[in-house]
Design brief:
Layout lengths: L2 H14 L1 H6 L1 H23 L7 H8 L10 E4 L4 E3 L5 E4 L6 E4 L14 E9 L2 E8 L16 E3 L3 E5 L4 E3 L3 H4 L1 H21 L9 H25 L10
Antiparallel strand pairs: 1-5, 2-3, 3-4, 5-6, 7-8, 8-9
Helix pairs in contact: 1-3
Length: about 240
């Protein structure tokens, strides 16, 4: 079995399941490509004989594909979506009839051509829905190499320590946000108790959005540090210790 066989299976599933038929052929093909990427990675790790001490460790290290019942994203290729003339509204034209969505953000899409947008992904997160655009563009940055070798040691007390003795402190977003997070969790617990006691239909405030905010802050901090190091040096070498 290969990726092409999995794509053909999507057409069979579209006849059996109504939700698969509503997606459209290109959206189903995109989903099968993502599934085959996970399967092929597992096969490659098996050929490389990635080892582990226990059965669970071997399964995790080889990347055993797991069934995902509830997906949080859908990806469209060239069909199933349309952009308005001012590029401020996204309309999904598949069988689900989601309709017109307003795009809110700091990214300006007017500088690109419609042919450059190869894929559109709609992602659901704790704080709302996000539209991701995959754009075919060549990005060039002129870098002047410093011709200097620098070693980085990632640790727990400091985020990293370089070979010159300079250190970068660990952001510790979760530690700094624990007080507010505990307060939100206590509020949710009280509201859930009141709902069970009064049997009303009001929903408690959810802490998922705050967890999402903490995770996004940590990722953006790591990306900024990485971009800062890459802008000063031409090559970045990573040592894998196993």
């Amino acid at each position: 079995m290969n990726g092409y066989d999995l794509n053909k299976q999507m057409a069979v599933l579209a006849k059996e399941f109504d939700f698969a038929k509503k997606l459209g052929s290109q959206a189903r093909q995109s989903g099968s490509e993502r599934a085959w990427s996970s399967i092929s990675r597992f096969y490659d790790n098996c050929k490389k004989k990635v080892s582990g001490k226990t059965c669970a460790e071997r399964s995790r290290s080889k990347g055993f594909p797991k069934f995902k019942k509830h997906g949080n994203s859908v990806e469209y290729k060239q069909a199933g979506w349309e952009l308005s003339g001012d590029w401020k509204y996204l309309t999904l034209t598949d069988g689900f009839k989601i309709g017109r969505l307003k795009l809110v953000g700091s990214r300006d899409l007017n500088s690109y051509q419609i042919e450059q947008i190869k894929r559109v992904r709609l992602v659901r997160r704790a704080d709302g829905y996000y539209a991701q655009f995959c754009i075919d563009i060549e990005r060039r940055e002129s870098l002047e190499p410093s011709r200097k070798t620098l070693g980085l040691d990632v640790g727990l007390n400091h985020f990293y320590t370089d070979s010159d003795g300079q250190t970068v402190e660990n952001p510790r977003y979760l530690r700094e946000s624990e007080r507010k997070l505990k307060k939100l969790q206590r509020t949710v617990s009280k509201q859930q108790f009141q709902i069970q006691k009064a049997a009303n239909d009001t929903k408690p405030e959810c802490t998922h959005s705050y967890h999402e905010l903490i995770a996004m802050g940590a990722v953006s901090s790591i990306k900024s540090i990485k971009c800062c190091q890459l802008s000063k040096r031409k090559y970045l070498v990573r040592e894998r210790i196993s």
